[in-house]
Design the sequence.
């Protein structure tokens, strides 16, 4: 019997937003969920014990980065990614597809796979559906992703179709190369911003979805209305009985709009990346901690937050740390930002249970955008 | 009644090393103790909660840095350093003397004080004994240091005497300017590497020592034998009934040699600084984590250590983090290194209680230097 299953607890009667439990070999994940990103087998600046304290249920790690450094064979010899990075809850690895396509001139795509030069030392490598499955088997995450081609936003329909077709063929090869029962393979819906391609893609890939399906190639530069339209197009064709993962999405509004459109899983580097730049997400909108107005602000970042940072430190102190380029600034702001998104999805789960998700979203927006209104 | 007192628990019968308890307004400090350095109101990369977990009892912070950024008036308005940095155990601030003298061409010394240019923006400032007391009053540490002139190692005796005499005159002014009963002023013994000056200095400054005395100007480049000789020279004149603090000393051997010579308190940036460079202090000597030999070393940094880093991570993982310039490397190695020195002094306290400090030191050296022997 599979170690993976998805249990729907409740569907919001007004929006159709879902809350459920995703059972995995490393424990349960309550959905909707946000997954912090640990690119190089570390969620930047956060101890695993800190991540657990702030309620992270699952983290994402990047196959491309780990393939190059320290190498997936080494991770396998260390006992897999969970043991290597000391994270005993579920892990998801991406396929490296998005990263190698982002290399631009450094990569060449063919039906066989993608040949690319390492951004670290220029060495030549090839990723194929089969090699990417092998790498993800060695890393040993609970959830692994199919190797897909994410066509650039703005490309013409001919190219978008070509990339989608290639993604589908690669998916067949990924499914064939993936045989173990310990890891769950998520296929990825592509199709750029073309409604008919998106529909064609979701109809094709869902047959490969055993307990999870992903939507790729969104939030890549398109206007939000376009993104929402694509989600609405595919929604009727998404399987009900498994988690749906919207890849690379992590702003509060995109998360809420995704949840409203039946999405269960999200990931993004945003909370930790902006933390390292000295920016916080709060219930009253973004706070650029460096700003002079916080020089003598002896109140917490977010008066509605109960994270370690907000319980113990003031904006004046955080601003001082940012000004001094102290590592502690990145840590405290990362704690806050990741906690903030985890609280956002926790609140969404509760709201869905009481059929009040639309009201939850409305109230969040009212505060989050209050300054701008 | 003073909130400060020092209680000797035991004196090692063979070496004269002491263990005791230093009572302060923010709690007790068991001596001998190592104080991690939190230059800019943060022990670099460590959350205060993490510092507490690894057993830090007191931290040091730098007046020069805090005077420039964020300014001591701001810290005072924040409720003092303890509230500002969320550290509720004892704090010691230095006087800024060592930092401004280290500015070289950027400073000018007179009997009045030291005029200097900020290393941050070139702005001109003056530190006098009176201004430094005021700054330290605003910061609000439990223990504050007299403003002293630390003459350069290698200077001639005429200059060393001049700097010592100035230090003594400044001490008189500091004592006069310091009137509150909430903070304890530690006078500082100077005298460079001249035995007669050291003797003269300790005899002068001990009259100003109410509950604590410091030894400055050692471990500044001189051979260790010279440093030990200076400590032996002043030892007979150090008051028994108060803590003795050897400033800026933090290598394991200097700490042990200091304890053997009756020293109770130590501080140094070493454990956190080398951590950020990827180096660990272990019971088997230094470990440069980046070294290729650790690539597939799936054992902890130090097999005798029970810190969070050693309980949960391997050298191979730490090496990967260092190679990727991940912030987590600095955090985990800082946790280990600070914990290592805190364990070293904890072991010393236990050994002193059973009159076995010399044996404790011998056993530590046998392992620490095993590789080199």
Sequence:
């Amino acid at each position: 019997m599979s170690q993976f299953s998805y249990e729907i607890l409740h569907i919001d009667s007004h929006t159709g937003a879902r809350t459920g439990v995703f059972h995995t070999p490393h424990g349960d994940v309550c959905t909707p969920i946000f997954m912090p990103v640990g690119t190089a087998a570390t969620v930047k600046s956060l101890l695993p014990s800190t991540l657990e304290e702030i309620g992270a249920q699952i983290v994402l790690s990047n196959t491309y980065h780990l393939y190059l450094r320290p190498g997936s064979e080494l991770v396998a010899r260390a006992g897999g990614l969970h043991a290597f990075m000391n994270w005993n809850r579920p892990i998801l690895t991406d396929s490296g597809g998005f990263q190698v396509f982002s290399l631009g001139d450094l990569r060449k795509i063919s039906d066989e796979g993608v040949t690319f030069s390492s951004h670290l030392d220029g060495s030549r490598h090839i990723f194929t559906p089969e090699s990417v499955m092998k790498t993800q088997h060695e890393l040993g995450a609970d959830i692994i992703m199919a190797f897909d081609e994410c066509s650039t936003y703005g490309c013409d329909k001919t190219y978008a179709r070509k990339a989608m077709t290639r993604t589908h063929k690669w998916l067949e090869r990924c499914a064939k190369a993936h045989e173990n029962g310990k890891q769950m393979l998520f296929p990825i819906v592509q199709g750029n911003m073309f409604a008919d391609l998106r529909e064609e893609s979701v109809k094709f890939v869902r047959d490969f979805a055993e307990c999870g399906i992903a939507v790729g190639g969104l939030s890549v530069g398109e206007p939000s209305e376009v993104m929402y339209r694509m989600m609405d197009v595919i929604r009727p064709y998404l399987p009900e009985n498994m988690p749906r993962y919207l890849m690379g999405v992590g702003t509060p509004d995109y998360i809420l709009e995704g949840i409203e459109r039946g999405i269960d899983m999200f990931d993004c580097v945003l909370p930790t990346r902006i933390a390292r730049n000295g920016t916080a997400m709060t219930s009253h909108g973004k706070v650029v901690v460096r700003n002079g107005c916080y020089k003598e602000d002896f109140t917490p970042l977010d008066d509605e937050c109960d994270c370690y940072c907000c319980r113990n430190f003031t904006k004046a102190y955080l601003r001082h740390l940012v000004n001094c380029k102290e590592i502690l600034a990145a840590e405290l702001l990362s704690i806050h930002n990741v906690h903030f998104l985890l609280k956002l999805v926790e609140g969404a789960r509760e709201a869905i249970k009481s059929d009040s998700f639309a009201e939850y979203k409305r109230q969040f927006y009212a505060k989050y955008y209050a300054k701008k209104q």
